[in-house]
Amino acid sequence: MQALTITRAETLKPKPEADKLGFGKHFTDHMFLMNYTLGQGWHDPRIVPYGLISLEPCAMVFHYAQEVFEGMKAYRTADGSIQLFRPMDNVRRLNDSCDRLCIPRVPEAETLEYLKELVRLEADWVPNGEGTSLYIRPFIIATDASLGVHSSHTYLFAIILSPVGSYYPEGINPVKIYVEDDDVRAVKGGTGYTKCGGNYAASIRAGERAEEAGYTQVLWLDGVHRKYIEEVGSMNVLFKIDGKIVTPALTGSVLPGITRRSCLDLLRDWGYTVEERLLSAEELFQAAETGKLEEAWGSGTAAVISPIGEMGWGKHHVTINGGKIGDLTHKLYETLTDIQWGREPDPYGWTVKL
Ligand SMILES: *Cc1c(COP(=O)(O)O)cnc(C)c1O
């Protein structure tokens, strides 16, 4: 493992007020950086004061979006300690994204150590208010100063930290989602299963359209048949239909969410039949119209669980569970957040103490 050097900030920033954190607005005093150079590999892992990154305007990332990222959280437990949730899964997924984008893989064990070291240094930034956490954003960008279209020979790996507020400051309210028929988020063979900025750039327009139509999130269909449900907004989506759990299979255009996997692990443990398969919008709306769609929710690190109360698709409009959060959705939310914030023991070994 290459030695991590630490350069401390000369002055520390004032911490934001616990009830005014929001999401991704405040950043801590330090960040992690590491460079890659072809022939040399990853080198110079370091923690430095949080600050500007200087790049040439022709740096490849600005033009061809050779970039990957991750999203995870550090949680403050009641006894004041700090823990991460399945962090190695994020590091492995970062490397899966790297493979697809032709970015050199990062050393996994070292990366987790660097990340833990950064969070330890910034421990005072992990908030302790109800539902708050320290959001961790690792990302890698292509830095070659060249407009030629090929994979870069140099990269910058950075980790920045942001204290974030509760996702549900006013209590957990079901969202309204809208089936997008025109734009697609990803296609099989593309980058849908990776966390790369390009996927997000392509999804913004549909999100804006859904908002204009009075909905909160987009329900994405697959890009080939324009028929099968894939994800909701930037979350995975799960349904309880006729007592069984149905969620889109990981076909290549769906992001393999760690919250999704945790939901499925819990649900199987609780004795539910879990079907990871193709689910068409037609089947879903039919289930809703015949009363078989009992619950629906999105899953992701930011919200953990986001109940879905209404769905629109063309002239169809359905309400799920009377627009209220379902019992199972609620139980999943409670169970996951109890484990993440250390309120209940973690029988799965998902949490990693700092
Ligand atoms: C990050 C992400 C998710 C959720 O993944 P988690 O590991 O649960 O946070 C789902 N869909 C998309 C498109 C994502 O980018």
Verbal overview:
This protein is α+β, with helices and mostly antiparallel strands and about 350 residues long. It contains seven helices and 18 strands. The chain starts with a strand and ends with a strand. The longest helix has 16 residues, at about 195-210. About 25% of the residues lie in helices and about 30% in strands. The strands form two sheets. Strands 1, 2, 3, 4, 5, 6, 7, 8 and 18 form a nine-stranded mixed beta sheet that branches. Strands 9, 10, 11, 12, 13, 14, 15, 16 and 17 form a nine-stranded mixed beta sheet that branches. It has helices spanning about 60-65, 85-100, 110-120, 195-210, 260-270, 280-290, 325-340, and strands at about 5, 30-35, 40-50, 65-70, 70-75, 80-85, 135-140, 155-165, 175-180, 215-220, 230, 235-240, 245-250, 275, 295-300, 305-315, 315-320, 350-354. Helix 4 links the parallel strand 9 (about 175-180) and strand 10. Bound molecules: pyridoxal-5'-phosphate. Pyridoxal-5'-phosphate binds near residues 71, 231 and 258.
